[in-house]
Amino acid sequence: MFIIKGLSKTYPGGVTALEEINLEILEPQVVMVIGSSGAGKSTLIRCINRLIEPTTGSVQLNEVEITTLGKTGLRKARRRMGMIFQEYNLVDRLTVMENVLSGRLGYVSFLQAYRRKYGPEDISAAYELLDRVGLTENCNSRADALSGGQRQRVGIARALMQRPDLLLVDEPTASLDPKTSRQIMRLIVELASERGTPALINIHDVALARSFADRIIGLARGRVAFDGTAAEVSDQVLTEIYGEEDWSATIKNDGSDSSGDENLLSKIEKESSAG
Amino acid sequence: MSQTDFKQKYPQIWKRFTPAETLVRYIWYGGIVFIAVWSVSNLDIPWFYFLDAHVQAADLITRMIPPYWPFFLDIIQPLVETLHIATLGTVFTIFLAFPVAILSARNTTFNKTTWFIGRFILVTSRSVNTVVWGLLFVAIFGPGPVAGIFSVAARSIGFVGKLIAEAIEEIDVGAVEAIEATGASKLQILLIGVLPQVMPIILGTIIYRWDINIRESTVLGFVGAGGIGIVLYSSINLFAWHEVSVILVSIFGVVILSEYLSIKARARIT
Amino acid sequence: MSYPTTWQPPRFFTNPYVRYGVILGVLGYFLLSFLTLDADWQRTLKGIPRAIDIFQRMFPPNFSRWEILVRGVLESVQMALAASFFGMIIAIPVGICAANNLVPKPIYYIGRAFLGISRTFHSIIIAIFFVKIFGFGPLAGVLTLIVDSFSFIGKMVAEDIENMKPGKLEAIRATGASFPKLLIYAVLPPVLPRYIGVSIYRLDANIRHSTVVGIVGAGGIGQTLAASFSRYDYGFSLAILMTIVSLVFLGEFFSNWIRAKLR
Predict the structure, then answer these.
(1) How far from B53 is each of A173, C131, C132, CA to CA, in Å?
(2) Structural domain spans, chain B
(3) pLDDT class for A152, splitting at 50, 70, 90?
(4) Contacts of A77 (CB under 8 A, 6+ apart)
(5) How confident is the model at residue C227 (pLDDT cuts 50, 70, 90)?
């Protein structure tokens, strides 16, 4: 279904963000990517839909090679991949409904987009998604009138409007408080499994990752340092990904209450990014 | 603490600038004065004109007062035409300035060449004054308000386009990235991702420019491009000063009114 | 469970009568303004071939009479420099008079009215009056630009003074300082940087404006340009226009450079 082979990215200036990434997602599962800031998580996600051009390597979604596509082909491929962002990235001055419907932009003409004319099945799908994320009431309010958690719900609805074959999710909860974070993560995971859509989720909160992931991938310095189930994430694995630290609290806790770990994790992140 | 201690401990001289700084400052002052004197002396100013300037000015004012109010009926039509020139010229600007701004903003332009073309249009449009554009368009379309409308639009593109381009360069790139990630085309990205973000700036700038354009349209008539300026110019040349004062008072009224409307309208845009 | 299949974006005017009224009004305005426009449409339509003709005669630009060109440009630049200098100086008393936290009310109203009137009238209208009083030539142009400059800089100075925190004025007043001392110690330091910045910007604007006051006979390159247009000497017109564009460009570059240095 989804296969990455030998994917590398070197930025102009010589910084290597990704090195020889190999990754296969062959069944609808939730894959969480953990790693410290600067490990290449964001670059990996953006190299898949080519918001960032990868230097070398291959990305295949349903037998379509993405890295070699031309402009039109790439647009068609992007329609198959829904993306959710850390800062929600909604168009603030548009309504919630317009933001959700923008997920269908790849399927309508410029004129239709200008007149906000989307097909009836798109409209009802949008209403259904808004109902599912609990924002039916807000459908005509402007996006900048919503709270952070609500805005991320709109972002999720927009991504799912695409009826994607793959969800790319970049730090969906990093700007939210712990309680909202868990709600949002649960929503993403539930929707992904309901629709049988595989999801690749960047996350820095290890506890949160462990409690929701089918599979966890650890990135360290642009390389895959770990690939396994949540249960397999051990002291040693975390040390390999993030560096030396007392991990016992993170492991024992099992993510049932992540708020306590947030401080610890953010401390670790600070240290590892400083080092 | 005795007086002598005090003297030894603290300096009694305090200067804000070091001697070198002072010197540099005086060189600057000297240079500025020199440039001013050089400019004035090179302009061949007939200073003796100043001798009777106050007489001339007083003469003008006495001739202008009292204004010949019935003349106002004759200038209603040119005043309305002035408003039309400003408004229609500004409306044309709306459609032309946004595409030029897209070319001139680094993050939305297509390539180096299109960026250069956009910048070139902005710089040319802005460097040439509305009245100078008037000279050109009167030569093309002949005297009349059509030339005026084109002149107003030609000058406004640069003004409005530059401000929109700056706004585009400062938009939230995240939203644009998100729209791009849905597989939208370049035009759709501009329409859904960029346009809503810069809409308030576009509206505000257009209204502001409309207000400036009304002021500009009052003088377009001097080069034959329509509006109240034609009447003003001929009244001045006929030494009909009691008519001139009526025209000036009405221009003052129209300009103040448009400025008031423009400020009110811009305050409502959020 | 079924969901609605239609959706309308919320309208700016919720009342349909108001909405269609506004649309009709706008369309009506355009129709009316086009119909009442005192334009000779046949002459206007001829404009397209005329434009081609004019552009053909513009190229190549004719720089053969470059002495006249250089003299005109030099005159414009000198007008701009002199006007900026005197404008800067006059702006200070005018600006102080138009600041309501510094001077008594009657003086404030006089200062504001002065700024208001000189800003309302386009510089070309002001220029034509100076031409009537002082005759044709650069003197009228310089005076026009001076009025333009001091009203612009003066307004900024007045606004800056008004935006000062009242405490600062009080602190210096409390030391028993006289009005001139108050100006030097409390007003000057916060206002000075922006005053200089605005003055330099004004120099750049004066260069731009000095190219137009000539159209009514107030000296500078504008006079040469207007003359070349009336003689259908379009090659020379383009040469002048190109010179003006590059002059303005240089002026803007210079003013940006100095303002960046001062920061």
Answers:
(1) 75, 11, 10
(2) 71-268
(3) very high
(4) A49, A61, A64, A66, A69, B183
(5) confident
Q: CA–CA separation, B57 vs B248, rounded Å?
A: 16
- A30-34 and A16-25 as β-strands: parallel, antiparallel, unpaired? unpaired
- Predicted complex ipTM: 0.83
* pLDDT tier for residue B209 given thresholds of 50, 70 and 90: very high
Q: Dump pLDDT digits (tens) for C81-95.
A: 888 899 988 888 888
Residue range B71-268 in CATH 3.30.1360.70: no
Contacts of C9 in chain A (CB under 8 A): 95, 97-98, 116, 140
In a domain, C218, yes or no: yes
How many domains are there within chain C? 1
Residue C13 resides in a domain:
no
User: Residue A201 forms beta bridges with which residues?
Assistant: A32, A169
Token output for C200: 């330099």
Sign, CA dihedral A227-A229-A235-A236, equals: negative
Mutate to test the interface with B, among C29, C32, C37, C209 (most CBs of B within 10 A): C37
Overall average pLDDT of the B250-260 stretch: 90
- Residues 184-203 on C with a CB inside 8 Å of B are none
Task: Report the phi/psi class of residue A88: left, alpha or beta, with left for phi > 0 and alpha for psi in -120 to 50.
Answer: left
The number of residues in chain A equals 275
Q: Round to whole Å and give the CA distance between C187 and C169.
A: 8
Kindly give, in sequence order, each residue whose CB lies less than 8 Å from that of residue C10, ignoring residues fewer than 6 positions away.
A95, A140
Contact at CB, C38 and B145, closer than 8 angstroms = yes
CA–CA gap between residue C257 and residue C37 (Å, rounded)? 45
Pairing label, strands A2-10, A56-61: antiparallel
CATH code: domain of residue C116: 1.10.3720.10
Query: Structural domain of residue C254, as residue ranges?
Result: 66-262
Interatomic CA distance for residues A72 and B55, integer angstroms: 76
